[in-house]
Write a structure and sequence with these properties.
The chain is mainly alpha-helical and 187 residues long. The protein contains 7 helices and 2 strands. It has helices spanning 17-31, 41-50, 60-68, 98-108, 111-121, 141-145, 173-184, and strands at residues 82-84, 153-155. A two-stranded parallel ribbon has the order 1-2. The longest helix has 15 residues, at 17-31. The mean pLDDT is 91. This is ABC transporter substrate-binding protein. It holds the Pfam family SBP_bac_6. It comes from Hydrogenophaga atypica.
Length: 187
């Protein structure tokens, strides 16, 4: 999106075949530089602590744990931006007790709970009022967790063939998955 503006990428989750191929080629090239892709947060933390890993994409959660162990780590959102998601609390479409689920979701919007959760997980609270006065999060917690970087974050959405930026001609998610597995395997 940023490296090659001529591709015309407007949304990193809505790629036509040409854009997708360029992204896939970039991933394949990067794979030669990447020692490991993590699927477990604590394995990544251990690798930073014991295996000499010095740079990686990550979550604030891992950085916060490493900092709590006095490890010399810092985080940054690259100038190109980053991807992220917001799915800490969800409700099943066919919940057996939707009223209870809605009550839980309403409770979860409490600023104290949101601040405590953000402090523990390394996320940004969904309630801005949680950013001030929370003992666990601290008054700088929201800034540390990325609150001021939202405009540089492309939030996850499942890639589909029907998309708004490519006249409904996007590469579907199942292809992303199979190609990513191939990249992990070195292909």
């Amino acid at each position: 999106m940023k490296k090659n503006p001529a591709l015309g990428i407007k949304d990193p989750y809505e790629l036509n075949e040409t854009q997708y191929k360029a992204a896939l080629d970039l991933l394949r090239g990067q794979r030669k530089l990447v020692g490991k892709y993590w699927h477990d947060a604590f394995v990544q933390i251990d690798d930073f602590t014991n295996e000499g890993v010095v740079a990686s994409s990550s979550w604030q959660f891992m950085a916060n744990i490493l900092k709590s162990k006095n490890r010399p780590v810092a985080t940054v959102v690259p100038v190109e931006g980053a991807t992220g998601w917001a799915d800490s609390t969800m409700m099943h479409a066919e919940a057996k007790n939707p009223n209870c689920a809605y009550m839980w979701m309403e409770h979860s919007l409490n600023p104290k709970l949101q601040g405590d959760l953000a402090a523990w997980f390394g996320s940004v609270p969904s309630v801005p009022a949680a950013c001030k006065g929370n003992k666990l999060l601290g008054d700088d917690g929201c800034a540390r967790q990325g609150y001021n970087s939202f405009e540089r974050i492309s939030f996850w959405k499942t890639p589909t063939t029907k998309c708004s930026t490519q006249n409904n001609a996007c590469v579907p998610y199942h292809k992303w998955v199979s190609d990513y597995i191939a990249v992990l395997g070195g292909r």
